[in-house]
Amino acid sequence: MTRTDVDLLLRPATPVDVAAIAAVHLAARAAAPMPPAVHGPDEVRAHLAARLRHDECWVAEAGGRVAGYARFTATWLDDLYVDPARQGVGVGSALLDLVKARRPAGFGLWVFETNVPARAFYAARGLVEREHTDGSGNEERAPDVRMEWLPADG
């Protein structure tokens, strides 16, 4: 467990956290300039519960509540979502720094092209845009961008 400068507790997620993680996921996604979700709340909860058994997942707690989470594999940051009420105060940066520390050889992620705030967030923290697609490879069929962080990139 790690404490950050913004009075967050970063800790590994547990199955008890699934409902809170799903709530953050759904709220953050709804507030972001992203295509509409193709999965409802029940599907999101089931998916996240299943992924917690296979992926590394950490939560950021503020005031005893989940304020954000990051879910990642050996090579991909699959999710980094922050509760819209907690955005802009360092939660996302703390989670991204944790992922960088846990994956020092680097990692990639996908972000929707329309999610300009997320693209700017990642770029400001050393991730580089490597590939733009027409979205034919994602469920939403929306253009996306593959970004990458490598230690040499920053």
Written description of the protein model:
With 154 residues, the protein is an alpha+beta fold. The chain has one domain: Gcn5-related N-acetyltransferase (GNAT) (Aminopeptidase, 3-Layer(aba) Sandwich). It contains 4 helices and 8 strands; from the N terminus they run ββααβββαβαββ. It has helices at residues 18-31, 41-52, 91-102, 116-124, and strands spanning 2-3, 9-12, 56-62, 65-72, 77-82, 107-112, 128-132, 144-149. The strands form 2 sheets. Strands 1-2-3-4-5 form a 5-stranded antiparallel sheet, with helices on both faces. A 3-stranded antiparallel sheet has the order 6-8-7, with helices on one face. A hairpin with a 4-residue loop joins β4 and β5. α1 (18-31) packs across α2. The model has no long low-confidence stretch (mean pLDDT 93).
